[in-house]
Write a structure and sequence with these properties.
By secondary structure, the chain is α/β, with parallel strands linked by helices. It has 10 helices and 15 strands. The structure holds NADP nicotinamide-adenine-dinucleotide phosphate (NAP). InterPro entries: ADH-like_N (IPR013154), ER (IPR020843), GroES-like_sf (IPR011032), Lipid_raft_assoc_Zn_ADH (IPR052585), NAD(P)-bd_dom_sf (IPR036291).
């Protein structure tokens, strides 16, 4: 039996993405075969496809390469010594990060240790939206040690990472401020954040006395946001390309600043799934593209204007 995968055969524009047919993979020791329902798209997939960033450097001699780190689906087969799950169980995971990838597949073999069970109250769509973005959000809030009552500014609160970070910070009982375009003001207000329209004025003209900055934009926008901070504020800057610049400037100004690289953590994924299941966290999915329209999906994520997440339906 055969199944489909989406590959990057060479780096370039979204149009380089291709579909290929492979023989159904067989799980090895400790692995399970997952029938992928949804795979979500992250900005790192788009940058890697364009040949940018460290995941592209890692994989430049390994093309064609199957991108994708976020999957949800059902266990199809268990390999030897894989006993955590049974055939038919619903699972999700942040898989193969950073070098292996593989999520843009209809069927993929994954070490069972990379997966988490999806509670019956969580949809496969919501579960696919969570792995990389949700864990980045949770790890950033943890790293910043956000506390009850603190004033937290999250740049780009409407994005894949941002909409989860806003909700986790609010659950910590912080006072959350976030930046977005006019179109997302109401959405972020419904999540409980004070939403600031960056198209109207930069954050530095609207806010002051911020304890913690979670930067999801980087560059000049992040440098401007440093003007909103109170003495000894903490800064976590997530976009890796400008992390050094932002940390250098923040440190010069007397703030404690660091970059961050997300690290897959199935236990943390279970917590996020639990939060969605009990209604403490809501995932926002802007659009689900069929797998054969992956080029449009990449074009959407490349706009940097996605609200929440973009998914690929791998089974349609
Ligand atoms: N270091 C790591 O481990 C790590 C992990 C995950 C992500 N990242 C990086 O973190 C960044 C965010 O990731 P993501 O997945 O959240 O991206 P995303 O989903 O593509 O973010 C899109 C959002 O950004 C907002 N936005 C764009 N320009 C903005 C601006 N100038 N000010 C405020 N908001 C703006 C948009 O809101 P509007 O439409 O309202 O403008 C949109 O909702 C990316 O650079 C990504 O590569 C790094």
């Amino acid at each position: 039996m055969q199944c489909k995968q989406i590959v990057i055969p060479e780096f370039g524009a979204p149009e380089v993405l291709q579909t290929r047919e492979i023989d159904m993979p067989t799980p090895r020791k400790g692995e399970v075969l997952v029938r992928v329902a949804f795979s979500s798209i992250n900005p790192i997939d788009v940058k890697t496809r364009a040949g940018l960033g460290w995941a592209a450097s890692e994989n430049k001699d390994n093309l064609p390469w199957v991108p994708g780190y976020d999957i949800s689906g059902k266990i199809e087969q268990c390999g030897d010594n894989a006993s955590r799950f049974s055939v038919g169980d619903e699972v999700a995971g942040f898989i193969g990060f950073p070098a292996r990838g593989g999520g843009y597949s209809q069927y993929v073999c994954v070490p069972e240790s990379e997966l988490s069970s999806i509670p019956s109250t969580v949809t496969l769509e919501a579960a696919a939206a969570l792995p990389l973005a949700g864990q980045t959000a949770a790890q950033a809030i943890n790293k910043a040690q956000v506390k009850e009552g603190e004033r937290v500014l999250i740049l780009a609160g409407a994005g894949g990472v941002g909409h989860i970070a806003v909700q986790i910070a609010i659950a910590t009982k912080a006072e959350v401020y976030t930046t977005c375009s006019e179109a997302n003001l109401d959405y972020l207000a419904t999540l409980g954040a004070h939403a600031i329209n960056y198209q109207f004025a930069p954050a530095s003209e609207r806010l002051s006395d911020i304890d913690v900055l979670i930067d999801l934009v980087g560059g000049e926008v992040a440098l401007d946001a440093l003007k909103c901070l109170k003495d000894h504020a903490r800064v976590i800057t997530i976009p890796t390309v400008t992390a050094e610049l932002v940390c250098e400037k923040a440190t010069l100004l007397g703030f404690s600043a660091s970059g961050m690289l997300v690290s897959p953590d199935p236990k943390q994924m279970e917590t996020l799934l639990y939060m969605v299941g009990v209604g403490l966290l809501k995932t926002e999915i802007q659009h689900i593209f069929p797998w054969h329209d992956v080029i449009s999906a990449h074009k959407q994520v490349e706009t940097s204007r996605t609200r929440g997440k973009v998914l690929l339906d791998m089974q349609c």
